[in-house]
Amino acid sequence: MADFTAPTDLPERDPSDESEPSDESEPSGENGLLPAELRAWMHLLAAAGTVEQQLRARVKDALGVSHDEFLVLCLLADQPGGGLRMTRIAELLGRPKTRLTYQVACLQHAGLVTKGSVCGDRRGIEVTLTEKARRLLKDTSPPLAHAITDAVTRALGPERRAALCGGLLPGTADPDRQPDESPDRSTP
């Protein structure tokens, strides 16, 4: 898979410098070329690229796996039963099945996942986290989450990060909130 590096040097915008478009038919934006959705998408890509760059070495040091293998572990950790079919993992990550087969083999060799056949489908293979992987993820997730917060804040700035998080991840828009603090769910 080609290594994608998103633009991290997008110019900062002053939110108080919003100008109204002169023509109702033109897209909104600083110069009328990009609608807000495309600008937001570019900022999201920039943040994702920055996060990926920051996590690569940290994930390797903390877990001993590649960034792509880490994504497989995260997908599995987010499943109620802890397991997913290989085809579903490939779909969710947008990876070719052959590449995923190699990544899962590396994770299996490290003792972080197990593979088994899917009941009722002899061709289906399900991948499941081991207890070793669960312990590693539990121990390494808080500092990795903090690194993500820092990278997104650096890429977008605190105001854009808060706006992005508030829209995509309600309850996480407070730039001073630490990643391991749960948002207050008691208020609507």
Automatic annotation (TrEMBL):
Its BP terms in the Gene Ontology are: response to stress
Q: Which residues form the HTH marR-type domain?
A: 35-174
Biased composition range(s): Basic and acidic residues: 174-188
Name this polypeptide is given: HTH marR-type domain-containing protein
- Highest taxon in the source lineage: Bacteria
Single GO MF descriptor: DNA-binding transcription factor activity
Q: Where is the composition biased (Acidic residues)?
A: 17-27
Q: Which SMART domains match?
A: HTH_MARR
Give the source species: Streptomyces flaveus
Q: Which Gene3D superfamilies match?
A: Winged helix-like DNA-binding domain superfamily/Winged helix DNA-binding domain (1.10.10.10)
Region Disordered, annotated ranges: 1-32, 166-188
